[in-house]
Every structure is written in C-alpha cells, then in structure tokens.
Amino acid sequence: MPESRQHFDAQNFDAIIVGARVAGTAAAIFLARQHRRVLLIDKASFPSDTISTHIVLSGGARVLGQLGVLEMLEQSGAVRFSRMRSIGPDFDYRGDLVHDGLDERGLCLSRIIMDAKMIEAARSFESIQFRDRLRVTDLIIENRAIAGIRAEDSTDRHEFRAPLTIGADGMRSTIARRGEEKLGAFPRIDVPCARAYYYAYFDGVDESRLGDELVTEFESSPGAGNLVCRCEQGRIVAATAFDAVELHSFRIDLEGNLRRYLDRSFAVGRILEGATLAGKVFSSGLLSNTCRDPAAAGALLLGDAGLHVDPLFGQGHSLALMSAAIVGDLAPQWFDASRGETIPAIALAEFTRRRDAELMPFYKASVRVSRELALDKGTRMAHRAAASEQWAADEMIRFAQMLTPRGSFPSFRFARLMAKASRAA
Ligand SMILES: Cc1cc2nc3c(=O)[nH]c(=O)nc-3n(C[C@H](O)[C@H](O)[C@H](O)COP(=O)(O)OP(=O)(O)OC[C@H]3O[C@@H](n4cnc5c(N)ncnc54)[C@H](O)[C@@H]3O)c2cc1C
C-alpha cells in the first residue's frame, strides 16, 4: 500500500526500544530510572524461549546487580556459579569468583524465565510502555536521521516517534537492515564462526559431580568445545561446539550425536554419565561474528544487533548488558542537549567510542578463536600460562568473565609467563 494511503496512529516517547530481551529490557530500565518515557516493543509474545545456553558471565551479572534484578532472578531459580574451570589438551585450571570479600559470581537461568522476569521488572516502571506482538517494519527517516519506527500488529499499523530509537532486535536486526538500506548507516564487518552449536538440558547429575561451577572445554577433538553449568530446578545445561561443516551429519541423529560429542571430552562426558536428556536438543545453525558501527543520527544498535559474537565463550548477554549500561551513563547528556529533537550522530558516537574501548578486547579474543578450529598460538599460550600458577589462573578467569578493566589484561607478569610457556612448548 502506498505510504500516503496508510493509516497510522502517532505517539511520542523519549526513546523507542525494539526488542525486549536482554539488551532491550536492560536499556529500558536504565532510561526509566532517569524518568525517560520509553516504548519497549517486541514482535514475540512472552514468556517465550530463544536459542541460548544461559550463561551470564560475571561482567553481565554485575550489570544485572546495577539494575536491581539479581535477587528476583535468583528467586526464579537462577544458579549463581561461583567457580569457573577451563580445560584443554595441555591445561586445566580453575578460579573462584567469590574472593577477598568480593562476590563476582555469574548466573545461569533459562531464557524463557530470565526474559519474562526482565520484562516484568521493566513493566514495574510507569514510564515504560511495553507492547508485545508488535513488529517493526520500517524506519521513519527525516532530514537523513532516524526519527522513529513503523510497526504492525494483528489489527493495525502504527507510527511512533522519539529522539532516540534503539535497535535491540537481535542478530537479524530490522533496525540495522533498514538503516543500512535507507541511510547507508550501521556498516558491518562479518567473520564467519568456524563452529556450530547444539545444547540440551540433563537431569540426574548430583552435586558431587557438578556443583556451582561453570566448566568449559576446548579441543578435546579438532574444533570441539563443551560447556556445562547448573541452571534452575537442579538441571544441567550442556552445550557442544564442533566443526560447522558437520552440521548436516549431526542433524541426522540429534540426541545420539549430542551424547557422542559431549562424551568426546576431558571431563564433561564423565559429569553427564547416567544423566537423562530432558526435552529437546536445540541448535544454532550457522553463525557469524558481526560487528556494526552502532550509531546513526537518531538511533543506536544494542546487544546482538550491534555486536554479535560466537557463543563459544558465552559473552553475548554480557556484551548486551554492559553496552546497555553505557547507554545508561551517556543518556542524560544526550537528552539534555537534544531538547526533544532527534539526537545527532555526533553525540551518539560517544557510545561507539566507549563500547569499542571497553568491550572490543573481549569480542576480539572471541573472534580470534572463532575463525579457526584450532586454538591460535597466543590463546593456547595464555591457557598454558594460566594453568601454571594460581594467580595467573585467577587473572585469566577474570578476563574470561569480562571483569578485567580495559587495557589491564594481560598484565606484564602474565605476558612474561606466557612467553615462558611459549618457550617451554
Ligand atoms: C547456541 C547459542 C548459545 C548461546 N549461549 C550463550 C551463553 O551461554 N551466554 C551468553 O551470554 N550468550 C549466549 N548466546 C548469545 C545470546 O543468546 C545473545 O547474545 C543474546 O540473546 C542477545 O540478546 P539481545 O537482547 O541483543 O537479542 P535477542 O535475545 O536476539 O532478542 C531480540 C528480540 O528482538 C525481537 N525482534 C526482532 N526483530 C523484531 C522486529 N522487527 N520487531 C519487533 N521485535 C523484533 C525478537 O523477537 C527478540 O525477542 C548464545 C547464542 C547461541 C546462538
């Protein structure tokens, strides 16, 4: 239908957030705390699941703490993992996440519960209007800036305007795609993931085999990776990573292959011995690491929409939460300066600068491992160094948990230990 003949109802907000899962709800809560009027929408209805193995690393859990939702998530069954173990062909080390009076535990909870609870938290703010089953179809462009969105539900079409539109609509973001088509905005760099992922839940693993520890494994066979962690109701979530070219043959026998792949491991197979598969096996399909320039006049991309990373290290939720926290920090100056007008690209570029400075070291470490099936030499040496001394294990685990402040990993003494591990190899 030509645009002139469409019927739209117009409404105004300070910010429109498209996508109401990890990135979108976190950003909405940060803005609502600053008394901003937020429209938070999603095409899905809730509660509903999404493909993800649930690990919220300590860096992301810290943001959940800032949002004031940790207690509620724990009451909903979230497991706080207090240790991390990393195993490979020539390394095996652990680090505690509760130490020196600090609680830096991560969190593991199925997305169907976590996303519903985050929406509940967002809806408790009067200044957030939440609408599900509302799909964004297009952007409103005025003076080469994004001035709002066009959306449709089962009965009508709608138009909403705001000085800031946030695309938190996942790795296939409509906001990113339409911004690219209409304005040449949000340029992207893609690096294909060499691995594919399958995961499932298991019952019947007692605490003596897996307590509150996140276990990750690399290279038990070429390209392999495994992860296990306890989640709600005493269940274990277990994921396996493998060469993406095996995706088709894996699908021929999902349950059998998941068990076989998890068994080709250093420790995960033993942890799951005798455990029963609970429910179906979930898949990722083929994935890419995608980094976009997240800022354009009037709009930002958050979470997977702006930075989609290989799930191997479980960074996605934390990247989403930590970038939402940056929005929370910067938003007062944006809104004060814009006085109700579209926020200019130059102001939003500060978000890009902060995101890149604070989060790119973690993203790049993932991409280095994601692009090849074998661990690259530097990553392997870092693991070997971590396995040689407990202080180094602690430093490596803090980096893996996205707790390390920018520029501080590897420390000088860790780099020296890596060089020693490299000479010994
Ligand atoms: C197999 C696998 C395992 C993973 N495991 C982990 C892990 O253990 N730890 C971790 O941190 N990360 C993990 N991830 C990554 C993690 O799931 C993502 O990083 C995270 O979901 C990103 O959250 P988000 O809010 O940006 O986007 P999403 O969770 O993708 O949410 C986007 C929302 O936008 C909505 N939407 C999309 N288009 C529109 C539209 N046009 N109109 C309205 N709404 C729209 C969708 O309905 C959806 O609800 C995993 C990913 C995969 C594939």
Mean pLDDT: 95
Poorly predicted tracts of residues: 1-10
- How much of the residues is beta strand, in percent? 25-35%
Distance between termini? 66 Å
Could you tell me the number of beta strands? 24
Helical amount: 25-40%
Using the coordinates above, name the CATH class of the largest domain.
Answer: Alpha Beta
Tally of individual domains: 3
Quick overview of this protein structure:
This protein has 425 residues and is of the alpha/beta class. It has helices spanning 22-32, 58-67, 70-75, 111-123, 174-183, 247-251, 254-263, 268-271, 316-338, 345-370, 377-388, 390-400, 412-424; strands spanning 9-12, 15-18, 38-41, 55-56, 83-88, 91-96, 98-99, 102-103, 107-108, 128-131, 135-142, 145-152, 157-161, 164-167, 188-192, 195-203, 213-218, 225-230, 236-243, 276-283, 288-292, 295-296, 299-301, 307-308.
Written account of the structure:
This protein has 425 residues and is an alpha/beta fold. The chain folds into three domains: 3-54 and 111-189 and 288-368, 3-Layer(bba) Sandwich (FAD/NAD(P)-binding domain); 194-283, D-Amino Acid Oxidase, Chain A, domain 2, CATH 3.30.9.100; 374-424, no CATH class. Helix content is 36%, strand content 27%. The protein has 13 helices and 24 strands. The chain has helices spanning 22-32, 58-67, 70-75, 111-123, 174-183, 247-251, 254-263, 268-271, 316-338, 345-370, 377-388, 390-400, 412-424, and strands at residues 9-12, 15-18, 38-41, 55-56, 83-88, 91-96, 98-99, 102-103, 107-108, 128-131, 135-142, 145-152, 157-161, 164-167, 188-192, 195-203, 213-218, 225-230, 236-243, 276-283, 288-292, 295-296, 299-301, 307-308. A seven-stranded mixed beta sheet has the order 6-5-17-18-19-16-20, sandwiched between helices. It has a six-stranded mixed beta sheet with strand order 10-3-2-14-23-22, sandwiched between helices. Strands 1-13-12-11 form a four-stranded mixed beta sheet, with helices on one face. Strand 17 (213-218) and strand 18 (225-230) form a beta hairpin. Helix 1 (22-32) packs parallel to helix 4, helix 1 packs parallel to helix 9 (316-338) and helix 11 packs across helix 13. Flavin-adenine dinucleotide binds next to helix 1, strand 11 and helix 9. Residues 18-19, 21-24, 41-44, 50-55, 135-136, 168-170, 174, 197, 284, 303-305, 311, 314-318, 320 line the site of flavin-adenine dinucleotide (FAD).
